[in-house]
Amino acid sequence: MHIKDVLATVNDEFQAVDKLIHEQLESRVPLVEKIAEYIVSSGGKRIRPLLVLLTAKAFDRADADAVKLATVIEFLHTATLLHDDVVDTSDMRRGNPTANARWGNAPSVLVGDFLYSRAFEMMVELRSMPVMEILSNATCVIAEGEVMQLTNVKNPDTTETQYMEVIHGKTAMLFEASTHSAAALLELSDADRTALKEYGKELGMAFQLVDDVLDYEGDAEEMGKNVGDDLAEGKATLPLIHAMAHANEEDRQLIRNAIRKGGLDDMNEVLRVVKSCGSLDYTRQQAIACRDRAQKHLENLPASGARDALAALAAIAVERTT
């Protein structure tokens, strides 16, 4: 199943989300609308709201509340992107200049705050305490994940366990919250809620693991961002952590020094070591293991086209090149 087939499963609901997104971006401050419209219209995959809709569709409940929850999730995600680009001093996302590159850091941060606030306004309208509990907790975990990543920048002693904790917080948590909050909104059984929560978590982990592989072997034009960004920022992602554990002493020191100083001066040599140690293959294998666990969590859900689409989405996350 291709991503187009997955999207076709909830095409009408996805269009309703898009409509609601633009309605909810309305603000009496023109710059808020301009920046918010720019970031939400810049070609993102919208995987997280898709997860909400597919979860609801799997139980024949893809109604107006599910559309609203999907919009909340997209606003939360977009807010984190605005903040992340400022923190990472990124100048390109999805093939376009970042909002902070166009308007500056202060407006980007403040519009991110606006999107967070608007998301919580809409969340209250759903009148579901379980949903509010899941999403308020998720936003805290995401913030902690970002701070944890920041404290690990230019630290070559970052362990694989610490790395997994960071990517769960900064990426997988919102995937997890998307399916978990949708299950809570639908008031599903505890077993189904747990299965969907764990599915979302494993999908998010797979997604980030593949992202970290693509940072070393992707195509910048196709990906819409700079290849080697992680090394340039001094981030010890799993390919580097694995390579340092398996390289000879000289190559290990090469990677440690590259992480400490950041930049791309040593990119070619680092890539040589990473490839010779099989570190990209190792990272991809970890993503495949996450995919397999994600799909297994779906096995006891009712058979439906939406459940098949969720399973396909886990496969697509691992096979993608962007």
What's the total number of strands? 2
Strand order of the largest sheet: 1-2
Q: How many helical elements?
A: 17
- Return the CATH class: Mainly Alpha
CATH domain topology: Farnesyl Diphosphate Synthase
Poorly predicted regions: 220-224
Regarding quaternary structure, how should these chains be classified?
Answer: single chain
Our measurement of the CA-to-CA distance between the termini, rounded to an integer number of angstroms, reads 17 Å
H and E string: HHHHHEEHHHHHHHHHHHH
Query: Describe the biggest sheet?
Result: 2 strands, antiparallel
> Number of domains in the coordinates?
1
Second rung of CATH, namely the architecture: Orthogonal Bundle
Q: What percentage of the residues does DSSP assign to strands (E)?
A: under 5%
Q: CATH homologous superfamily - what is it?
A: Farnesyl Diphosphate Synthase
Radius of gyration over C-alpha positions, nearest whole angstrom: 20 Å
Mean pLDDT: 93
The structure class reads mainly alpha
Shape estimate: globular
